[in-house]
Structure formats: structure tokens, C-alpha cells
Amino acid sequence: MSAFLAGVLIGIGNVALVTNDKLVGAVLFSVALLSIIELRLPLYTGRIGKVLTNRNPSELFLILCLNAFGTLAVTAGYLIAYPGSGERFREIGEAKYSKPLLTLFVAGILCNVLIHVAVSARKELITVLCIAAFILCGFEHSVADAGYLPFGGSLLRWLVIVAGNTVGGIGTELLLKEKI
User: Fold this and answer.
1) Which residues contact 168 (CB under 8 A, 6 or more apart)?
2) pLDDT score at 55
3) By residue range, what is the domain housing residue 53?
């Protein structure tokens, strides 16, 4: 259930992004990751970098699925409570999922470089800046992007983002540990 809660927090971060002010949304989204770090909740993008040293791949798959369901639950709940917000979710989803596959993959890698740094540094300012950077640069976060799947997404495109996040997380961990 803690992985589901991490997804819920990311979903709440997505709600901040449907505002018309991208900078404000980017900064407010960081509240989700700060809370996840503080509460030590399992978030796929924050944990995938450790898969080579101490994580069970099937556990990480379960975390990813529960994170995605938590994010989707918030999206559904928000749309029920605020039915007029669906158009903004659709705009964001279509913009995200219309990118070429290679762009989604690279944007997933770059996102998780920043996520891994944010989680590893455990400094609030670094976390806020890393989150704002990945959002303002247009990078892709698989858990957050799961909330936009009903709006222009496809399982294949989402899995490409997951693959990019995986490569970014593992690659950053290896570089931080100077194993390559």
C-alpha cells in the first residue's frame, strides 16, 4: 500500500501541473517527491537505480504497477471532482505521448538522472531544483505519465518511458558509484 500512496502523491503533483503556470506547477510537484523521500515510500523512479545492488526486480515491477495505479486513481478522482479539468489533462497527455519513441526514451533517461540525484542527495533544495528542471525541460517520468495514459497514451509509449527511466536510474547509480 505504501507504493500506491507514493503514486497518489505523484498524482497530486500532476494536479499541480494542470495549472496554467508551468513554473508554479513544477515547483509544487516537488512537494510529492519531498514527501516520498521523507516518508521513505517506494517510488519506482527513485529505487530503480539500486536494482543492481539490492533490489528484487519483481518487487520493483510491483512498485511500478502500484505507483501507476495510485497516480491514475488521483487523476480519476480529480476529474470526477473537477470535470472541467479534463481538457487540460488531455492537452498535457497528448503533448507527452505524441513525441517520437526515441524522444520519449531519451527524455525518460534524462528525467531519471535528475530523480536519482534528487533522491540520492537528500537535500530539499536539490530535490526542488531537480524536479523543476525535469518538468520545465519536458523530460518524462513514468509514474507521473501514467496519470495521462487515458489522454493520448499507449502502453507501448509508456513502456518506452519506463525503459528510459530504468536506464537513467541504473546509469546514474553506476556513475555515482564510479563502477564504469
Assistant:
1) 108, 109, 110, 111, 112, 113, 115, 116
2) 67
3) 2-176
